[in-house]
Amino acid sequence: MAADERIRVFGEDVADAPEEMLAAVEGKGGVSARTRGLQRTFGLARCFNTPLAEANIVGRAVGQGIRGLRPCPEIQFFDYIWPAMQQIKSEAATIRWRSNGAFSCPMVLRVAIGGYLTGGAIWHSQCGESIFTHVPGLVVLFPSRARDAAGLLRAAFRCEDPVLFLEHKHLLRQPYTRDSYPSPDFVVPIGKGSILERGDDLTIVTYGATVERSRRAMAMLAEQGVEGSVELIDLRSLAPWDQELVGESVNRTGRALVVHEDIRTSGFGAEVAAWIAESCFDALDAPVTRVGAQDCHVAYEPSLEEAILPQADDIADAARRVLTW
């Protein structure tokens, strides 16, 4: 926001407080305090609250983007994004196509997503990123740690297309996601994944909150003496996603396990698995395998939530099967 005065941040509760109360209260800055202090620093014209109306929020951003601003609307929870679906899919994502490139609709639509909240239940625990990766013209980003979030956010604001920037709620409070604040020139290119661990016998492809659970699964395999080393890839970007990186890894290891938090049926892992099966078939020594959530809504009761969402044990079991095929 300091570098580009066109950026506008708005949504439900993203501002700090009414102007006349700023000196007396700390301010909210969003449910998770992700935008705290922006109103104080940049003023109410550049960081402001909106009605509780997601279609209104994204529709406002569409207008701002077409008129030359760089809007950064926020949907407070992914579970409530659906009223804005028409604005996202039918309006924002089609403008460049419909105008034959004469108009663009840049925006960075930030959305809190995901579960592992031990009590988030059905309206605060959903994933569903595959629904949006199916929308031509929409960029979808899903970082798993702070440094990547900063680098991808900088890339997103340079993009002329609308960007869906998914911020996992569980990861916001985990110490393992922390990084030193990157230098101003640090940018993560859109569509580029990252190899977090090197290995020779199995490739795990994942993103979001299941990155850390995959790390824990790898530690379990080592403790159990399972033979074979595992390569861990964090996609970071889902639309587009890094086919080159995944293909190079799978062609070398000969085995692939795709892990994601969303339900298994029609989840984004199905796209990755299908691409691997089609593009790396000659190199495969075992079936491409997927781990995802159960095909149901996320329950409120913690033990049920644990059973529904993929855990490190589930990933370790699947990895063991692939390694010993």
Topology:
Elements: E1 7-11, H1 38-42, E2 47-49, H2 54-66, E3 70-75, H3 85-91, H4 95-98, E4 107-113, H5 129-133, E5 139-141, H6 146-157, E6 162-168, E7 194-197, E8 202-206, H7 210-223, E9 230-234, E10 237-239, H8 243-253, E11 256-263, H9 268-279, E12 289-293, H10 302-308, H11 312-323
Parallel strand pairs: 1-2, 1-3, 3-4, 4-6, 5-6, 8-9, 8-11, 11-12
Antiparallel strand pairs: 5-10, 7-9
How much of the residues is beta strand, in percent? 15-25%
**Helix share bin:** 25-40%
Radius of gyration, in angstroms, nearest whole number? 20 Å
State the major sheet: 7 strands, mixed
Can you tell me the residue ranges where pLDDT is under 50 for at least 5 consecutive residues?
A: none
Overall shape: globular
Gap between N and C termini: 51 Å
Strand adjacency order, main sheet: 2-1-3-4-6-5-10
Helix count equals: 11
Task: Let me know the number of strands.
Answer: 12
Structure description:
The strands form 2 sheets. The chain has a 7-stranded mixed β-sheet with strand order 2-1-3-4-6-5-10, sandwiched between helices. It has a 5-stranded mixed β-sheet with strand order 7-9-8-11-12, sandwiched between helices. Strand 11 (256-263), helix 9 (268-279) and strand 12 (289-293) form a beta-alpha-beta unit. It is globular. The longest helix is centred in the middle third of the chain and has 14 residues, at 210-223. Helix 7 (210-223) crosses helix 11 and helix 8 crosses helix 9 (268-279). With 325 residues, it is α/β, with parallel strands linked by helices. Helix content is 31%, strand content 19%. The protein is built from 11 helices and 12 strands.
